[in-house]
Each structure stands twice: as C-alpha cells, then as structure tokens.
Amino acid sequence: MFRARHLALTALALTLSLAHAQSPQARIKIDTDRKVGEVHPNMFGNFAEHLGRCIYGGIYEEGSPLSDASGFRKDVMEATKNLGVSLLRWPGGNFASGYNWKDGIGPKDQRPVRPDHAWGDLDSNRFGTDEFLQYCERLGVTPYICINAGYGTVNEAREWVEYVNEARSTYWADQRRKNGRDKPYGVKIWGLGNEIDGPWQLGHKNAEDYSKFALEAAKAMRRVDSSIQLIASGSSNFGPNADWIAWNREILQNLRSEIDYISLHTYIGNRENNFERFLATSQDLDERIEVVAGLIQAAQSGQRNPRPIYIAYDEWNVWYRARGNTEFATGSTRLEEIYNYEDALAMGMFFNSFIRRADVVKMANLAQLVNVIAPIFTNKQGLFLQPIYFPIAEYGKQRNNMSLNALVTSPTYTPAPGRKPLGYLDVSVTHNTKENALYVNVLNRSEKLDIATRLDNVEGAIQSAVGVWTMNYDDLKATHTFGADKKIVPANSTYTAKVEKNGFTYTFPKHSLTILKVKLQ
Ligand code: AHR
C-alpha cells in the first residue's frame, strides 16, 4: 500500500517536473536597479563562547601536537579561514553575563579558576582578552567583545575598553603593556550585554533597568574611545508570555542616540520531524527582521539627524537536539549538535532572509564556531566539517555584493494550520558589479517537487555559461563524522543555458540548495 502510494507520488513528481521543464512553474525576475543594500562582510560573522569545548578543546588546546606555541589549534584556524569568517564575537553568550575580564589577563598560572554560573562549568581563565585578540589578529577577523551587563558594572566595562584600546599611559593600558602588548588593539565593536531580557540570563533586567545600565555603559566606554560601535541587547525571548516587541521598542526609544545596532537571536529546530515546516521558519526570521526594522524607523522618526541603527543578528543557527532540561548549570552542558543535510539547507534559508534585508541586517554571527552548535567538530586527533559548513563558506563569497529585490513566484504550501502560505522556492539575489555577475541563491524546500523556473534579467543580456554550486543529497538525515566528512558536500558545474530574451529556464531539484552565478554581458 505504502509502496504503491510512494510510486504514484514519484510518478506524479516526475511528470510534473518534466512538464515544468517545458513550461516553468516558477519565476525569478531580476532587475539590477532594484537595489536593497550592500551585503556587509560582517554578515559572515561567527561566535566563540566559553562553553563546553568551544574555547578549551576547540580553538585553544595547550600542549596538543595540533596546536601552535600560543595554544591555538592550527587545524581549527585553517578551517575557520576557509569558512570565510569575517568577525568573531566573544566571550559569550550567557557566559558574558557572569564574566570578569580581569580574571583572564596576566601570567596564566596566576589566573584564578572560577565557576561559570551560566553553564555550570569551571573556567581556568587561561584564554582571556589578550588570547582572544591575538587569535583574531592571526586569523585576520574583526573582534567583537560583549560586555557583562548582567552581574558586571559600568566601570568594569569602561576599564575593559581602556585595557584594550587606550594608547596613552594609564593604569589599564600599562597593565596591557606589562602583559606584552604595547600597541592598542583598537577593538571597534562592543556589545552592551547578552540576552538581558531573558529570565535565564545572569543579572536579567527589565527594559527600563537595562536601558539605564546601557546608557551609562555607553557613555563611560565612549569617554575612553569615542570611535567604538555599540550593540544593544535586543529581545531573544520569544516565549509565549514574553513581549519581545515591547522590549525592542523601549530600548530603541531609550538608546537610539547611543547605539549602532540592536541584536536579534534565533535558533530553530526540526522538532516535529517535518522537513517542509522546518524550512518554513524563514517566515519567523523575515517577520522578526521586518518588525525590528519598523521599530528602528519608529524610534528615529521625527529626530533631527537620527543615528543610523542596524540589526546585528548576532546568534543564529539550528539548535534543538543537544538541548534540554540539562541545558543550564549542570556542569555537563556541551551543546554538541551533530548536523545533518537538512540543517545545511537551513543555512541557505537564514542567509536568504538576511540578504533580502541587507539594508538593515548589517551583521550576523553564526552560533558558534567549533564543537558547540558549530560547523567544525574536533577531538584530540583532528576535526571534521559538518554539512552546515559548506553553505556558510559559499554564501560568504557574496560579501560586498549588492542585494537585489527580485520578484519571485513559485508554487506555495501552508507549512502548518493557521500559517500563511509560502513559496517552495526561498530566494535571494546579489549583484557583483566588479564581476558583472548575478548570484541567485535558491533553496527548494519542497520534499518532493523539482521546480522548473524561468529566470529573467529585466535589462541586459546574459551569458549562456552559468556557474552552478549546489548541495543535494538523498538522505535528509545524513551526517558526517571523523574520517567521513566528504559525503554531504557541494558540487560545482557549468550549465549551458538556452538563453532567450535575457532569460532561461533552470530546474531546481527537490530539497536542494543552489547558487547560480549568471554573468551579464
Ligand atoms: O549560543 C548558546 C547560547 O544561546 C548563548 O550563550 C546564549 O546567548 C543563547 O541563549
């Protein structure tokens, strides 16, 4: 019975896809004049938290034959470079809200071991501010430090900026010199705390109390270095009783003349084991971005010379398996998600949402870099790359491209009762003017249908040789492991398009992620 139904469905899908090869069912209409905004390099940021094996045993492992003299794992550095990471957020996350940066400087053997009350572990403090900033320099990535707006004080935040950025001879700048670093690090991006609206956060505050703290911290930190950029802790509490919009509205209103970004965090998961519903979570992402963009506009409205404010999506990923009641303060929290093929497709979905609003999403940080909900997974002998690694590395090549507002029509579905219908094709488009090429990013989130699609460039001829990067794997649940990470990988090819009137038809296979590189003439 099941087999007969399966065969019938397969036959139907085949017939549909063949039919569509002649008459496309979907359309992507591109106009290079319909510019959204530049894809900022910081959209390809990442995040390293003192949690589980992200820092210790991940990026830093003293005494390992795989590490260099500073204790940095060379294999992880290499994988990080190839991932195209532009920016690195540190030291948390929830960890930041209990962290005293002064514990992590000076001779390593004299640093105190402290309990971390965010995740229930002990921290040796052998990796601290200097190690983090040297790591960033070695990788050539921009550092982003998140201050402690939970248990910490305004003055500690001010002193941290002084330690890191002060050029003159002052107490904290001289401590830095004593610790071997003369030249200021010049850290430009600072977060004013992490997820302070969440009751789980150490030092959780209401919006009014947080605003007062953040305003004073901004003032104090900018007195040390007026050039720094600040990120307010936006709401990450989307629970049924939380009013995430009210939090964002209030802090934007209160902090609008001090901040450069407001943060957003989103983790998704295929808890119901429903592929198409899982990949419909772009509805939430798009809505959150839209709403916060509107709140920014509302806060700026009527202001003379309003300060530009952008969204820093500074934590995002799939995270649901390595999560549960033991998540906080158990001493064994590791968040070691093993990612599968469908999670790799979700990476495309996230980036498509960010790129579609590249005018306002000017930063995004995958959470996290290694071992902890991460694309890179280590043990003492080496590492493997998880399937999510590959789309992240590929989308990163679109930094500095111009995002375009493409018109997309495709067959629709309703992911869950009560939700709005949405297209099977999830699309974003960017334009690289130097290469004179369009990058067309297409997630086909139909589990069953290949979708023949007409692609039209409104003005200007296109070349017939189209570059195709694609990820497509039969088993949605397939994963990688040590010694076996070459299975769920992208394929590159060239498609010779039959170009007519500045357009052609391409069939996007079911459950696949494709990036077409279309050269303009
Ligand atoms: O990335 C894991 C955790 O998720 C972070 O520490 C916290 O900010 C978020 O809740």
UniProtKB/TrEMBL annotation:
GO biological process, one term: polysaccharide catabolic process
EC number(s) reported in the record: 3.2.1.55
Catalytic activity: Hydrolysis of terminal non-reducing alpha-L-arabinofuranoside residues in alpha-L-arabinosides
Signal sequence segment: 1-21
UniProt KW keywords: Carbohydrate metabolism, Glycosidase, Hydrolase, Signal
Span of domain Alpha-L-arabinofuranosidase C-terminal: 314-512
Entries under InterPro entries matching the protein: Alpha-L-AF_C (IPR010720), ASD1_cat (IPR055235), GH (IPR017853), Glyco_hydro_b (IPR013780)
GO molecular function per UniProt: alpha-L-arabinofuranosidase activity
Segments forming a coiled coil: none
Family: Belongs to the glycosyl hydrolase 51 family.
Subunit structure of this chain's protein: Homohexamer; trimer of dimers.
Protein's name in the database: non-reducing end alpha-L-arabinofuranosidase
Organism: Paludibaculum fermentans
